[in-house]
Specification:
Blueprint: H1 2-9, H2 12-44, H3 49-98, H4 101-106, H5 109-151, H6 156-200, H7 202-207, H8 211-221, E1 248-258, E2 261-271, E3 276-281, H9 287-294, E4 302-307, E5 310-311, H10 317-322, E6 324-328, H11 338-342, H12 351-360, H13 364-368, H14 387-401, E7 405-409, H15 417-431, E8 435-439, E9 451-456, E10 459-464, H16 466-472, H17 475-484, H18 487-498
């Protein structure tokens, strides 16, 4: 309630106007039965047609006045609620953008969407109903009691008893209904989650003929956002960061998503500027967590990460994010033109810059074959493009950003071998003279890296160049041989030697 009043105070003039017209509407409603009693008592009883017409005209005028007040009240109340709703959605969206990754991981997308859409709609409806509940209803009730008491004092005790009974009913209703609103909200979140899950996996659902099961789940499923923890804030005297060299050092870094459950344990490594470092390991080994810490989606639990000799937390967050170009496995494309997708985050870029970025990324060829070239409007997610084409567009976006440090999170893991070669060529081009950190699934793509880190259970198990790790003949060598098809031959040769 306090939050809603904060927004209403910004538009107090309009709110007070709607309140004035609402009070006037209530007064008109109260006057009607009074003049109706005059018609009966003075006109009908005495058969005085003049009195009946006189009071009838007054009642007509009051009705017209009440109708006018109702229209004006509705107009100003709607303007208040719509304006408050618009500002609340805007602030909630900004709040979502500032949310820490911890809260984004905890709050499911369905819940966030519900907060921004349904919850704000409920607030708008509440503002409208609040005026009726807090202004018109009390005025009408109090006015009616006063009029009845004045005209028929003998009925006063009956009125008091009725009001007391009504108050008890209202209080009981609120006591019962309020906890249920929370359960309804949770079920609505689940409903949105089921819908989103179905739409994202509709081909799988249909392929396995699971429509009935999904329908059952849907039937079953049938303003904390602004208070959630934001991203890590800048320190008081945070320094600006302008085009860093790209020297990175992780010094005794540990990290836990949940207390007492470390994901990274005492990681220490130096990444010189302009070099390429690859991070490999099995699922859950901590590879993506390293990326989350480098970009300050999360802050370290222990230890420090240094960039050009300074703690990451000493830099302004906006400048730090500007220093990193990111290409993720999950390609994020929007319902916009190809050009707008490439220059996302850099809307000031000219068409020639966009074309050059696409050429560098190896995307220019297929873009030109699209119906309207760079002006082709893509579907959300770029679903009309192949996985490789979508990935090339995200690489073009990173090229245009021209960040001194490049993060590649398994950018080639979901494409075929031919497309992988195209993407590798594009990545080699944009990694020149940049510090790059690559999370790789296919080890053949990172053979030329200056340093390879093998993570196991959140710790560095092996590190070195490809040749050094192959000569070590440890876990990395086994993984590489398995992927390249030579592991089985090596195993058989070892068996023969043992025999």
């Amino acid at each position: 309630m306090k939050l809603i009043l904060t927004y209403i105070r910004k538009h107090l003039g309009i709110f007070l106007l709607s309140t004035f017209f609402l009070a006037s509407e209530a007064l008109c409603d109260l006057l009607q039965p009074t003049f109706m009693s005059y018609i009966v008592d003075d006109g009908v009883r005495n058969a005085d047609i003049g009195r009946i017409l006189f009071y009838g005209l007054i009642m007509t005028g009051i009705a017209l006045c009440g109708a006018f007040c109702a229209v004006m009240r509705n107009r100003f109340a709607s303007r208040t609620s719509q304006t408050v709703g618009k500002e609340l959605r805007r602030d909630m969206y900004r709040s979502v953008q500032r949310l820490s990754m911890e809260n984004i991981d905890r709050l499911q997308p369905a819940s966030i969407i519900t907060r921004i859409t349904n919850d704000v709609t409920q607030v708008q409806e509440f503002i409208n109903s609040m005026m009726r509940m807090m202004v018109k209803a009390p005025l009408t009730c109090i006015g009616a009691i006063v009029l009845i008491t004045i005209q028929t004092p003998v009925q006063a005790p009956v009125i008091v008893a009725i009001v007391f009974a009504a108050a008890l009913l209202i209080f009981g209703n609120m006591k019962i209904a309020y906890p249920r609103f929370g359960r309804v909200q949770s079920k609505l979140d689940r409903l949105n989650g089921v819908t989103r899950e179905y739409l994202s996996a509709v081909r799988v659902v249909k392929a396995f003929r699971a429509e009935k099961e999904e329908a059952k789940k849907f039937e079953e499923a049938s303003f904390e956002m602004l208070d959630e923890q934001s991203e890590p804030e800048d320190r008081k005297n945070a320094a600006p960061l302008v085009r860093p060299r790209g020297d990175i050092e992780l010094r005794h870094v540990s990290f836990c998503y949940l207390p007492g459950q470390p994901v990274l344990k005492d990681i220490s490594v130096k990444i010189p500027a302009g070099t390429q470092t690859a991070i490999v390991g099995t699922t859950g080994s901590g590879k993506t967590t390293v990326i989350n810490l480098l970009t300050r989606f999360y802050d370290v639990s222990e230890g420090c990460i240094f960039l050009d000799g300074h703690d990451l937390r000493d830099y302004r967050m906006e400048d730090l994010r500007e220093a990193f170009g990111v290409v993720l496995q999950d390609t994020a494309l929007f319902a916009a033109t190809v050009s707008e997708n490439i220059c996302y985050g850099h809307p000031e870029a000219g068409q020639e810059q966009i074309r050059q970025a696409a050429k560098t990324a190896g995307a220019d060829g297929f873009i030109e074959r699209l119906p309207q070239g760079y002006h082709t409007v893509l579907e959300q997610g770029g679903m009309e493009l192949s996985q490789g084409e979508r990935q090339l567009l995200t690489i073009a976006r990173a090229v245009l950003a021209d960040a001194p440090i490049l993060i590649l999170d398994e950018a080639t893991s979901s494409v075929d071998t031919v497309t992988e070669q195209r993407i590798r060529r594009a990545l080699l081009e944009i990694c020149k003279d940049r510090t790059s950190v690559i999370i790789a699934h296919r080890l053949s793509t990172i053979r030329d890296s200056d340093l390879i880190l093998l993570l196991e259970n959140g710790e560095i198990a092996e590190q070195g160049t490809h040749e050094e790790l192959m000569n070590l003949d440890g876990r990395y060598a086994q993984m590489y041989k398995m992927q390249t098809g030579t592991y089985e031959k090596a195993a058989k040769a070892a068996e023969r030697e043992g025999a």
